[in-house]
# Entry
Amino acid sequence: MLRMGFDIGGTTIKGGLVDDDLKLVSRVDRPTPFGDAGLLCDSICAMADELTRGTDPCRIAGVTVPGSVSRDGEIIDAWNIGLRNIPIRRMLEEKLDAETVIVKNDADAACCAELRIGALQGVKTGLMLTLGTGVGGSIIIDGKLFHGGLDRGTELGHAMINRGGAVCGCGHRGCIETLCSASALKRLAQKACQERKGMIYSLSERGEAHDAKLLIDCARKGDSMAVQLFDEYTDVLSDAIASFVNILDPQVIVIGGGVSGAGDFLTERLKAKVPPRTFFGSCGSIVAAQAGNDAGIIGAVME
Ligand SMILES: [Zn+2]
# Structure
């Protein structure tokens, strides 16, 4: 039986049909509308129509939100798509042709996918950080996703790491997200461009987007400025991970989101930098996410 999943990102809604083996059988994308829940629901319904054309209706639909979600499917705060206190599950239940609508935080959905088909299979205590536009974080305890004591989930990306630092999208200052997201790496790349230095600047002059990927690519090629910036970034990220290791002592730490595309180039640095920063001087294994780019869609439909 097919299920339909929708992964709402800051810029794009990724939709797809998922089969019983959690394989994606079709895909469709649409831009994410900002600050308009009605328009967002309309977009998801239009995508659902497109996906299910010629197939039986799906009994289950799953939606991920880039923000905090209550247990009863209300968006508490998703500032990066301009929505607060929205009963999104109820709205979609009224509009979508599905018996069950599941709504969950996007990082939690990615973590669910890792638990079933990725790096967290069989893990009792785990941690996943999703490094994308923001920083999402999920915790596995007793082999299950931890929903928080008050059912609001966990917001690891908004733990403070730099008192008095840059203002975060959540309104506080110095959150992990301000220093460890893909957006933070992009800001470092932009700074290098403004200073007109190094390979980052010369490649961006040739039309390459000055984003996190460009900085990582230049560091991989050995450009000294890019390596220095990537080392600064992984230093702060390692501080953050070491703090979570001290709290949770996870068996496995999974790094997901766009930055995890750096693969071993990232995880080898973290494996060297995190252990000496922890209380124990050691930590569980650190690996890149394995459930793939569509983990959000797959995780969305998992009950
Ligand atoms: Zn924050």
In short: The pocket of zinc ion is lined by residues 158, 168, 170, 172, 175, 177 (CB under 6 Å). The two ends are 14 Å apart (CA to CA). Residues 119-288 form a domain with the Nucleotidyltransferase; domain 5 fold (CATH 3.30.420.40). The chain has a mean pLDDT of 94.
